[in-house]
Amino acid sequence: MQNDRAEVSVWTWCSKWLSRSFSQYGLFIMLMFFLLAIWETIVRMGWVPSFIIPAPTAIVSSLVEHRRLLLTIHLPATFMEVVVGFGLSIVTGITLATGMHMNRSIEKALYPFIVISQTIPLIALSPVFILWFGYTLWSKVAVVFLIAFFPIVVSTYDGLRQGDPEQRELLLTMGANKWDIFCKLQVPLALPSFFPGLKMSVVYCVVGATIGEWLGGSKGLGYFSRRMSSNMNTDAMFAAILLLSLLGIVLFVLITWLEKRFSIRRHRHGGKRKVG
């Protein structure tokens, strides 16, 4: 009896989730299937050679064929590079943004260097990182970090500057110090800017990991894609690209979910404070 109830509840939750998802993304899903059908037809009809652009079914078939190699070796390697680089980007980005916000001298000294770091081509720096760190995890993490920390720094710094003068004056009259104002006013107001920076950064992390693996790696989806490209195995190359895209989408959706959770909690606590 309990198992039947559990199955009914799971089925109800799944049906509600599918209905809600289709109502939000129904047009996108239909357009995607329409474009995939056109893509498949063009390749099957021979209008575009399959060695240039393989058919979607051929890509999925290659993904299934190389699933053990892709899912147990190369995907975990790329995922580890993304996670480590993203984590370092978050810590460094928040630290730099907070320091620049708290101290004007730090902002004048560091902000130009932060901007300059984004003007250097990653393709030129990747060999340097390989020279420093070798063909290890850290050479790819360095590329990921360099490309991913900038959006976090800028979005966090801009968010911290969006303080409400009236609320600040109110907190000062209530005896709050600089740290209290930072934690209770500036940090919550910075979250709407902070999370968009996170979403941009996590997508850049996947790009950075791919570049690092492409230029100098022994495993990872970027390395696998480069090796398949040199062998003219476009089906397997596009299978790796598909996994890279899915990885970026999953991480982006995860950050979006966290943003919604924090937003709900912030509004809930804000409502309680207003009621009190």
What can be said about this structure in brief?
The protein has ten helices and no strands.
* Largest β-sheet summary: none
Binned strand content: under 5%
What's the tally of helices?
A: 10
What's the overall geometry?
globular
Helix content: over 70%
Q: In whole angstroms, how far apart are the ends?
A: 45 Å
Helix-strand sequence: HHHHHHHHHH
* Poorly predicted regions: 271-276
Topology, element by element:
Elements (H helix, E strand, L loop, with lengths): L1 H43 L11 H10 L1 H36 L1 H14 L4 H12 L3 H24 L4 H9 L4 H38 L5 H10 L3 H42 L1
Describe the structure.
The protein is about 85% helix and about 0% strand. By secondary structure, the protein is mainly alpha-helical. Helix 3 (about 65-100) packs antiparallel against helix 8 and helix 8 (about 180-215) packs parallel to helix 9. Mean pLDDT is about 85; it is low at about 270-275.
List keywords for this structure.
single chain; 276 residues; mainly alpha; 10 helices; 86% helix; globular
